[in-house]
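User: I'm putting together notes for a lab meeting next week and I want to include a structural view of one of the chains we've been expressing. I don't have a solved structure, so I'd like a prediction I can at least talk through. The sequence is below, exactly as it appears in our construct file.
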Amino acid sequence: MNDKLKGIIVCAVVVGALGATLGIMKLTGMDAPASDDSSSKSATASKAEEPDESVKLIDVQPEDVQKITVINGSGGYTYLASDESGKLGAHIVELKGLEQSSDKLKDIAEDTSQLTAKKLVESGASDLAKYGFDDPAAEFTVSFADGTERTFLVGASAPQNRYRYLCEKPADGGSTADVYMVLNYTLSNFIERKEDLLNMTLLKQPQESVTFGKLTVSRKDLDYDMVFENDNGQYDKSNENMPSAQVMTEPIFSYLNGTSSTDVMTSLYGLTAMSAEVIFPDEKALAEYGLDDPIAVVTFVGDDYDYKLSIGNSYQEENATGELQTAASAYYCTFEGVEGKDCIWKVDATALPWAQLVPEDIITTLMTWNMVTDLSEIDISGSASAKFEITSAGEDLTSVKIDGSDCDVDTFKTLYQYILSCPTAEIWFDDPSGEPYLTIDIKRADGGGDTIEFYKDTERRSIVKLNSRTSYRIPTTWSDRFVKNIDAVKTGGEIVEDY
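Assistant: Thanks for the context. Below is the predicted structure for the 499-residue chain, given as structure tokens.
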């Protein structure tokens, strides 16, 4: 019998050597070694004496930066500040119609308005090539509110990796310029692709709770869809005992494992891409990334929302020898249902549980989910025959009768536990022929319940219908053992749970 419940491994916290040493000293009464005050003071003094060589290259207010035109290896872009009316906020012209990162746009304006160099490297440098300005990483022109413009070149990385060389582009064909060192992160937005300035969150986490509608997962390699909905009492099951708030309604009905199904049910919210690969993709681009015939499609439809995630080709990283890894590290996707997301996105594989999903990954190991204290009757017919009448008071099972005679309560509990263990490892869709050779009809006091019917399939396999719907195929040894267990209850024998 397979148990799909996955354990959670709790990692131990490792105590640092320094903390352990101090702890031992405290326990033994030893004094901690005195710090070298003179060394500390010397270092502090040295730092304090280090001259500030920073140079403010631009010193205006962010709103004074009206336009920035960027040329770089990936093409570049044009930044425009908010218009006077305020109706059109700061944006990248080439990304109009897409949701842009407000934080990055703010950074561009603020970093440019207060562009500061760590220091002047060389005044009036004539050999600009040695700083990488013969083939600059980027060129950007800043247009100010007063009508003036200034153009800068971003050169190579400085020996200190945190910095790059920057100079103001020589005017009128000049060949000399002052060369500065500027922090990388200040210049990063001018070097990066315009696509990197988009908001990478495809679907934000909702501010309020959202009613779960219908989640459908279609896999290219499966001939059926997986559909998930809220239970909502529609399937005669009380909410307080639910293993998951949702159930599978296609291709079979099944309750869900509350642990393994969580990501499948919730991961669309907060879904974030690693990067935007293609903006406004056409049919050719969609085909190139496998999105004309995706490996999986996830739709999530409910009150006031209709989302569609398409998962295309996989992306494999290279190993140390330059070979592609077997496992996908990411997938190329499109997302519909939110404005401003018309792109092909690269999404981490771990954020896409639907890409390889099959029902067996997330269905519960329990075919039926009725609490023993909620039961009123269990009628068994076919190769075994018995009628159990169950009486409970609150959370206590008070009495059980079998065919009108008293039955040991603990023995019945063990038998019911065996019923609950009916295996669900193999789901099945092909309807059986003939009549069931065994039926277990479970009735609850509130009128709900489940009917489980067993049909012969092969010498060793039986097909199971749950509430008249073909759902599973199980080893016939399970039902053979069940018949023997019914006889054991009647004769006072022992219930055997192995089969």
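A couple of points you could mention at the meeting. The longest helix spans residues 476-491. The chain is about 15% helix and 35% strand.

User: Perfect, that's what I needed.
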